[in-house]
Amino acid sequence: MSQLVIALAGRRVDADGTDEPRFPLASVPAVKERLRKAPKDTNARALVCAAACGADLIALDVAGELGIRRRVVLPTSKEAFRSSSVVDRPGGWGELFDRVMAEVEAQGDLVIQELGTGDEAYRAGNRAILDVAQQTMDDGGEAWIVWNGKPRGEQDITLHFADEAWARRLPLREILTLPRSSGAQPDYEKTCFVAMPFGLKPKDERRDRQVDFDAIYSTIIAPAIERVELPEGGRLRAYRTDRDPAAALIDDDMFKGLEYSRFMFCDLTGHNINVGLDLGVRFRSSFSGTVVFRQPGTNVPFDIAQVKVMDYDPITPATARETITNSLRESLQQNRVDSPVRRALAHQRSEAVDALLRDAENALRNWDPAEARAKYSAAIKLGGDDATIWLRLATLEKDAGHWDEAADAARQRSVGSASIRRSSMSPGYPKETLGASIARLLSCDSATAR
Q1: Which pTM does this prediction carry?
Q2: What is the C-alpha separation between 309 and 281, in angstroms, rounded?
Q3: How many CB atoms lie within 10 A of CB 436?
Q4: What angle do CA 55, 58, 63 make, to 5 degrees?
């Protein structure tokens, strides 16, 4: 097995009183254990990073225990860095910093670059870490980010490190400082369900190299989705069932997400069979709101070759995020039918539905409401997503004085298809359920009618 060089960056331990936890001090033991296990999996021979409190110093401490060579790259002098990035946070990191610096300096593995302070200096520090690591990557290397799985925005320094690693074609792996969870129940009208491989998987069946799809999700896909503004206010939220803290049966949450989510993002990279299943379920249940992506070089299966499949390339992460965001915005604005399954079924059944509706109208002209009801019911079985058929049936039942049947039609359709509910949230469409529309049409309740 090749011995890898690891370039690492990540979160510092949270300051006292932090509003949004990113690396709580209480998480240090768990993160240390994750960092202790990961180098063994990769057969790491060297670690290159800075020495800030939190991810850096924990990784350096673990690497020392495991006998892995350590190279430390500081953006300023030891004394200035210790003051600004080590002892200013809780946890008593100064002693560990001093010990690690002494050990590393004795081995000739301390690199000091006078880059100053501030965000631009930290970005330069990221590049310096990657430069030093790549100089020693004879057998290959990886970049690791130790963070909470979510950037603070496009200017996030850890995200910048990830972007630099992607651009250099380095495999990126993430290690989380918080439990793998989204922290909130899904609001499906603001949710984009993400179907993609989880964890370390081959990019395709011809390659042995593992790709960390969780890192791709955290650094590219989720940030791109969550930049999309919704017309009714707020932004889209990326949702993966494996990150839902409330998930009991993951299949239940998966099918609910596929059925009810306003959007679905599908990544075909890796030809993962579970992703294919998810896409098929979504295409059967929803007329619109599905975008399909792949990384370059991924073959599109024949059965979905007619679907528009767009490329995103981690090597250009900012462009990849922009492409995904723009695709979702366009889908939101146009709300076009993008399901080949729904399109094919709608086309196939339209003539049969039209024939049944004509028969129903003829039956009404012949004063045969029972026959008309039978034809409408048959048409609903073929075209149940057509709201006008339900409205005609409800009106017929009302005119015949069949208030229970009319009310039952309203109740049944009030929990109608997710695609119609999503359409009702589109700009300019009344925000009410179809059941409410039928109830207004009936204009009085059954007790009063009797």
Answers
A1: 0.76
A2: 17
A3: 14
A4: 120
